[in-house]
């Protein structure tokens, strides 16, 4: 059964889109058009219905349509009855209103569960740990919206502690409160990540065998991460001398990494082929959707994913999306990439006309 999470969305002066108003009926949405027409800009706008900087990790100023530079705005109506507005004036931070009331961004995570897969994630398994932490934290956030607040709290305290370290402050009184905050938030982050890993692996166990299952684990750059709030607080205090020498905090969840092994081959994800790594990513994203359950307001954004799959896996992906009942938005260069959707999908064509993205229904 398909679930209509977003019923309507409007964009004003957002990247290449001057003015767009669209309505959705809950079917998987195939968005096609030439490169540079504005397809990714459209799903990026949808990604901003969740906390954070969206699927390209951009700043508010990056979203402003040029040359007008008037600021930008996104509005959306949800099938649950909520109305969302998010916007920014030039040079100002992003604002959020839900049902007419100003809210922090983290409030978005409580009414929409958004997941995405974009081409820049194709190198997830072979580049730095930062991207893998973000991937795992987004999974944890989808399962527990409070995870975002723990991450924000930890990052704020760590930035202050790192400032003290760089300034070579040695008075322990300056560190105690910050380390207590880091320990409390850090423990929640680690528990959230572990819960997400468990949920993803359980969801993979009941999936079809078209996309590979992976064995996941959490590692730490300095060996074992102290287990529990008290242990982390003690480790931070004991590590001040070493951290002073380094000028930064060397222990904590910000030093963790997500490890993945292709289960059937017993091969680390980083050693798999490019195609195999892509298949592992798709499998984990689908597992995340499955772990959320049918009662959750689930949205899935897949940017240019169909072009990297053979016909068999492409058809299998669409079958999975239909079976999960998730509201999905997919982009590709041509409608032929979505032939297997047939009447079960909605189609949008995006073209560039004199530097402005034009969006038309194509079904």
Structural class: alpha/beta
Average of the residue pLDDT scores: 93
Strand content: 15-25%
Helix residue percentage: 25-40%
The biggest beta sheet reads: 6 strands, antiparallel
Name of the CATH class of the largest domain? Alpha Beta
List keywords for this structure.
363 residues; alpha/beta; Rossmann fold; Glutathione S-transferase Yfyf (Class Pi), Chain A, domain 2; 8 helices; 35% helix
Molecular structure report:
This protein has 363 residues and is α/β, with parallel strands linked by helices. It folds into two domains: 1-112 and 297-363, Rossmann fold; 124-290, RecF/RecN/SMC, N-terminal domain (Glutathione S-transferase Yfyf (Class Pi), Chain A, domain 2, Up-down Bundle), CATH 1.20.1050.90. The protein contains eight helices and 15 strands. The chain has helices spanning 39-47, 129-143, 146-166, 173-205, 229-238, 240-246, 274-292, 311-324, and strands spanning 6-14, 17-23, 29-32, 72-78, 83-88, 95-98, 101-102, 113-117, 214-220, 256-262, 267-268, 298-302, 327-332, 346-353, 356-361. Strands 2-1-4-5-6-7 form a six-stranded antiparallel sheet. A six-stranded mixed sheet has the order 8-12-13-3-14-15, with helices on both faces. Strands 9-10-11 form a three-stranded antiparallel sheet, with helices on one face. It is globular, with a radius of gyration of 21 Å.
What's the gist of this structure?
By secondary structure, the protein is an alpha/beta fold. The chain contains 8 helices and 15 strands.
């Amino acid at each position: 059964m398909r679930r209509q999470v977003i019923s309507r969305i409007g964009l004003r002066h957002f990247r290449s889109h001057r003015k767009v108003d669209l309505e959705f009926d809950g079917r998987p949405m195939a968005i096609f058009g030439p490169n540079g027409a504005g397809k990714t800009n459209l799903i990026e706008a949808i990604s901003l219905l969740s906390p954070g900087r969206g699927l390209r990790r951009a700043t508010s100023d990056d979203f402003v349509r040029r040359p007008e530079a008037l600021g930008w705005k996104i509005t959306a109506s949800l099938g649950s009855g909520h109305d969302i507005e998010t916007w920014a004036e030039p040079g100002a931070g992003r604002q959020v209103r839900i049902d007419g009331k100003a809210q922090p961004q983290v409030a978005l995570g409580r009414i929409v569960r958004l997941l995405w897969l974009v081409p820049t994630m194709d190198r997830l398994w072979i580049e730095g740990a930062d991207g893998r932490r973000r991937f795992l934290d987004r999974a944890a956030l989808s399962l527990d919206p409070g995870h975002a607040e723990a991450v924000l709290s930890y990052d704020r305290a760590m930035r202050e502690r790192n400032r003290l370290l760089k300034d070579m402050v040695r008075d322990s009184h300056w560190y105690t409160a910050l380390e207590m905050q880091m320990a409390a938030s850090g423990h929640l982050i680690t528990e959230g990540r572990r819960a997400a890993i468990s949920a993803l692996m359980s969801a993979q166990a009941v999936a079809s065998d078209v996309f590979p299952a992976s064995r996941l684990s959490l590692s730490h750059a300095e060996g074992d991460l102290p287990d529990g709030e008290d242990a982390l607080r003690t480790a931070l205090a004991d590590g001040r001398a070493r951290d002073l020498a380094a000028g930064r905090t060397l222990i904590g969840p910000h030093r963790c990494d997500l490890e993945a092994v292709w289960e059937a081959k017993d091969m680390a994800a980083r050693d798999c082929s490019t195609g195999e790594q892509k298949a592992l990513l798709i499998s984990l994203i689908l597992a995340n959707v499955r772990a959320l359950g049918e009662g959750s307001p689930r949205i899935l954004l897949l940017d240019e994913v169909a072009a990297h799959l053979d016909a068999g896996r492409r058809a299998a992906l669409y079958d999975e999306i239909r079976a999960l009942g998730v509201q999905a938005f997919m982009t590709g260069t041509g409608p032929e990439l979505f032939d297997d959707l047939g009447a079960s999908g909605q189609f949008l064509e995006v073209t560039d006309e004199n530097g402005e993205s034009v969006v038309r229904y194509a079904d």
